[in-house]
Amino acid sequence: MSEQLTPTFAQDSVEILEKHTVFQGFFRFDKLRIKTRKFAGGWSGVMSREVFVRGNAVGVLLYDPITDQLLMVEQFRPGCLYEPNQSPWQFELVAGMTEPGESNEDVVHREAEEEAGCKVLQLEHLYKYWVSPGGMDEQIDLFLGIIDSREIQEGIYGLAEENEDIRVELVSAAEAFRGLQDGRINNAMAIIGLQWLQLNRVRLQETYGA
Q1: Catalytic residue among 162, 169, 175, 206
Q2: Is 162 a residue of the active site?
Q3: How many Å apart are CA 177 and CA 183, to the nearest integer?
């Protein structure tokens, strides 16, 4: 393996002097006082940092290689209210939080059913990535899910007890890529999934489209 892109330090190069929870609701915030080793040698001064403890999630790019269509969901996202020129409704991939006892694959199948009334026929794991490691512990496992778009009923889905109001839309891959270019699709998971699809679309059509 190349020595490039290998982390200089590991977990033992961080000294946690203090850690306590400052808020516990649906999510959690921890406050840390830490010191870290420095590239030039020695240790940093003591730093105070807050971490949003959200837990891990799973997302899935739902794609039919025969019809070259994607299943996208549209739903309200309160974080977008902080950008006045941004609609707080986002076009996204199906995703959900991992619950105790579930595998990542279990989450994909559960969320595809709950959010889109969709059955996933085949799965490929794409990436595991940090969402915002400067202040959040969340990691995403992103999958490709092969679907049969003829089985999809566009409409409104989601769990009423969780106040979910999710609209399902089938779009061509070409239209999704246009949405990526012109900014209609501008959340990280969807961008990552669609850029992966641009690189792997031909292979998927050859592998699954026969």
Answers
A1: 162
A2: yes
A3: 10
